[in-house]
Structure formats: C-alpha cells, structure tokens
Amino acid sequence: MHSASAGKRLTIYVGESDSWRGRSLYMSILETLRQNGIAGATVVRGQAGFGAHSLIHTWRIERLSMDLPMIIIVVDTPENIERALALVRPMVREGLITLEDIEIVKYTHRYLHPLPADLPVSAVMTRQVLTVSPDAPALEVIELLLGKLFKAVPVVDARNRVVGIITETDLLEKAGMPARLAVAGRLEEEDLRAFLGQIRREKTAQDIMTAPVVTARTDEALGHVVQRMLERGLRRLPVTDANGKLMGMISRVDVLRAAAGTAVAEEEEAAPRAGNTLGEVMIPQVPTVRTSDDLVDVLQQMLQGRFTYVVVLDEEGHPVGVITEGDLVARVAPPVRGGVLQALARRMLGREVPRGDVFARDIMSERALTAPPEMSVTDGIALMLREGRKRIVVTDADGRPLGLVDRQALLAASLGEQGASLTNH
To answer: Taking the domain 121-260, which CATH number applies?
Structure first.
C-alpha cells in the first residue's frame, strides 16, 4: 500500500497576454511561487477556450497565439497552498482560481534521490550466494550463518529453484535459537556450545523456512524491486531467472551501493525538499544511555524498546559510543554473561544481572557515527558504506542527538519514499 498525506491543489486560469509589472502574468506567478518555497508548479497552454468576455481564443497555424488560456497548477501541503493563494490572489485581476483537497501519494525529484531505478537487478545483485537444501538440519543453517554479515539464506531444490528462505526471525521463532546471530557470534566456545544445544535437532530447513518466498527477477527494474522491499519491510530478496532458478541475492546494502555510486547529473537552484537531507528522513527516537549508567540500565533500555543497540552519551549529552547486544555478551565477565543471555532470550530482565558492577563506558564500542542534519542523503549513504555501519546519529550544531537514520530510512530516501525506519533491527 502507498501512504498518502493530505494536500491541496491550486489551479489558476489566466490569459497568455495577461501581464504583471511588465512581464507575462503566468511567468510572474511561477517566479513568485518559486521564490517563496512552494514545492512546484506546472503551466499548461490551452489549445482553445473562452472566459468572462465569451470570446473564443484558439491556436491557428497562421497565428501562433491569440491570448490562449494558461493554466497554472500548484500542489503542496495545505499550509503552503494557503500561503501561495495569498501571494497569487492579488496578481490575478482577471481569471479564475480554484482550490481542491487531494491526497499526495508521492513527491520526489530525480536529482535529489540517487537510486538508478531503471537499472536491471542483475546489475547490482550479489551473485555468489550460499544456499541450503530443504532437508538441511536447522543446526547446520545456524552454523552456516554464524560470523557472516548476512543473516538469511535461500532454500533451493535439486534443480536450484528457490523454494523458501530462512531468516533470523525464522531461527528465533521456529528453530529454538535463544538469541540473535550477532550474539552467538560473540560467544566464547563453552557458551556457544550451550547456545547451540538449545536448537531443536529434529527441525529441518523445510520445517522452519518462510515459503512461498518473495523474489525478484534478474531483468526487473531496480526501482520496482526496492519498492517491494520497502512495502514488505524486507532486507533482502533472492533473485531468480524466468524459471525460478536462483541467480543471486539483492540486499539493502547492494541497493545503497548502487545509490552511492550514482553521480548527481545536474544541480538545480531549489529549496530543500523532503528526503533531500538526513534531517528530513531521520526519526527522532534515539535509544540512549549515559556513560555512567550500569548494565541493568542498558538492558532495560534495549528490552523495553525492543532495540538491539543503544547510543551512549557523555555527561554533556554528546554521542561517544554504541552498545549492541553482541557487545553485552562479549564484554561482560562470565559470571554475568549467563544472566545477560537469559534476559536477551526472554526479552525480559530478571534478577540474574547485578546492578553497579559494569557500566556503559566499560562495554561500549568507541565512536558513534554522527552527521549533521544538512548532510545530503547521497553523502549519508556514502558515509555509512565507507564506515561499515548500520546507522548514523544525526546531531545538532552542539553535537547532541536530534535523530537517527538507518539503512531502511536511506533505502526509502534513495527511491524518494518516506518509508518507516526499522531502527530496532
């Protein structure tokens, strides 16, 4: 489904020969709207028409113009349209102005959103893909994914046709995996054996996979596939040929790389619009703790908001680090680690974790990735890829958090959509 926002359409009917301060009226109206930050306007030149004087004006070959009707169409938010109407009303001394309520399904600009939407998926997909067969044990699937950057694997039959996909959610909900793969990948040998010991041995890939699976075709336009990913909240899709055989995978990172590699072909003098900067696509909710908060505070913030990370602030409120679930289990002492694992597995904090022994400053990863709100989406994508991070903290002029953007937010912005951000993933 498309999300729509309320808008208004202002339509202005004037004559081609109408003027304002020595210039054509329709061009004067366009210039006035542009200078005052209105989203955009379109002028349509009529073939024929009549107005208040009941004279028919028409275009003929022998006469290129005879005061033809000019129609100016303006679409924007209700507030901006009211402002536009106040500007335009005194300029139209003879003509017609109408106002209508509409729904704005999408507003974008080809120079502000860098995704090469017309590229075939085959041009950006990852071609080397690990797969499993339907009869592969669930434990084998988890061992295959441990330590990998990707957290899903397609299931293929003997003819290499995609019959399903296994995601981290499938492993958590159907295979008995007690915590996320990022946690398992940071465990020491003894704890990892205990972790894997909880996997349901009787389960196979066919038992736990998601099927039917949403796929993309190699010849599909990238823009169509990204739209599908956004609408369904998916991070990656198997890519198949016309016969359903696996040819590759396309992930959010693949798409962002394609967007970051697209040069801006032309710059226009225009006011920034939604989706142009990080400040316009960020979400204002940032899960934070202070460096002096202890392990219980960190866990409570993660579990209450169902986040897999928190941003650590110093005493002045500046981001200085990040703590992920993996950091929690890797950087606490073995006597405490078991309680942390139980809390993460149950998504509930019990009494197994002592207060006051471990603090956020002791377990955080140094340096949170930050950027100003005026940074462009394209530069934000490049920064995230260059640093190998999943999220950027957007900070004000004093270095304090304003919001956060993640891969999902940038994926939506690259296509010119205002997609929901999956900041808890």
So the answer is: 3.10.580.10
